[in-house]
């Protein structure tokens, strides 16, 4: 029984079992899966994952909820479609471009992934919830693998390097996305929110002491705006990871020809 349940869980995806249909016979006119998916992305961006429902989507499309079910069986299937839809947004560099340095390609992929996570704060929890094996997601993942293969790391180090870089980006982008959501909810700019937060924290004795201890770090961080500070931290952290890959390549010696 447990084995069958586990198999069902691993196969529970809109992309498996021939379930990527675009509609059944007799479907309502004026709708198609692409339109439904685009509306889902817009709603998730505007209202967030917690407030999303099939009923709310149907109202946005000016149809009944049952009309949406002509195209997907469940809300999970629709969220999978939306997740893969936004993975088609990043500008993916050509990993087969022999004239491009792998470091440039890797930094481009990392920046694009971070921007995706910040632009769509509902994406991070869905990445962990679903298999994430749609065509756009697989194309992005394939580009990452091809670029990291070009670093010269031994084959057994490829997945570790991908984890180091892109789990870092996942965490950074997720936290920045949460910050931007709080800013939007507060109705202020990021810089105004940061100034208010620092003033509030600095006015409490316990937290003020911590701020004072790290003032030299904050001052050295640089950046006239929150966006600049975030970009500088991200770039420096990414440089550390690239330097780590370079060091591991040098330590392991030349890789055998593929």
UniProtKB/TrEMBL annotation:
Keyword Transferase (UniProt): no
Naturally occurring in which organism (per UniProt): Streptomyces galbus
Lineage of producing organism: Bacteria, Bacillati, Actinomycetota, Actinomycetes, Kitasatosporales
PROSITE patterns in alphabetical order: HTH_TETR_2
Region Disordered: start-end pairs: 1-32
Top-level taxon of origin: Bacteria
InterPro entries hit by this protein: Homeodomain-like_sf, HTH-type_TetR-like_transc_reg, HTH_TetR, Repressor_TetR_C, Tet_transcr_reg_TetR-rel_C_sf
GO process annotations (BP): negative regulation of DNA-templated transcription
Database matches in Gene3D superfamilies: Homeodomain-like (1.10.10.60), Tetracycline Repressor, domain 2 (1.10.357.10)
Protein name: TetR/AcrR family transcriptional regulator
GO molecular function, one term: transcription cis-regulatory region binding
Positions of the DNA-binding region: 53-72
Domain (HTH tetR-type): residue spans on this chain: 30-90
Keywords: DNA-binding, Transcription, Transcription regulation
Pfam families assigned: TetR_C_1 (PF02909), TetR_N (PF00440)
């Amino acid at each position: 029984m447990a084995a069958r349940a586990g198999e069902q869980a691993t196969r529970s995806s809109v992309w498996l079992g021939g379930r990527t249909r675009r509609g059944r016979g007799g479907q309502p006119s004026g709708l198609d899966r692409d339109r439904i998916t685009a509306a889902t992305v817009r709603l998730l961006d505007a209202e967030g994952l917690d407030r999303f429902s099939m009923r709310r989507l149907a109202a946005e499309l000016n149809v009944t909820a049952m009309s949406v079910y002509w195209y997907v069986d469940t809300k999970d299937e629709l969220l999978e479609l939306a997740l893969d839809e936004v993975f088609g947004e990043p500008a993916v560099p050509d990993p087969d471009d022999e004239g491009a340095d792998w470091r440039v390609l890797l930094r481009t992929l990392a920046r694009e992934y971070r921007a995706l996570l910040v632009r769509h704060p509902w994406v991070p929890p869905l990445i962990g919830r679903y298999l994430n094996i749609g065509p756009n997601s697989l194309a992005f993942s394939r580009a990452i693998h091809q670029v990291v293969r070009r670093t010269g790391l031994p084959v057994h180090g490829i997945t570790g390097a991908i984890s180091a870089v892109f789990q870092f980006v996942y965490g950074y982008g997720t936290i920045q996305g949460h910050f931007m959501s709080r800013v939007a909810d507060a109705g202020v700019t990021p810089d105004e929110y940061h100034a208010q937060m620092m003033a509030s924290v600095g006015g409490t004795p316990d937290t003020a002491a911590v701020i004072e201890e790290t003032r030299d770090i904050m001052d050295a961080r640089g950046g006239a705006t929150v966006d600049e500070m975030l970009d500088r931290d991200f770039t420096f952290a990414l440089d550390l990871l690239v330097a780590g890959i370079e060091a591991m390549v040098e330590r392991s010696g030349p890789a055998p020809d593929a």
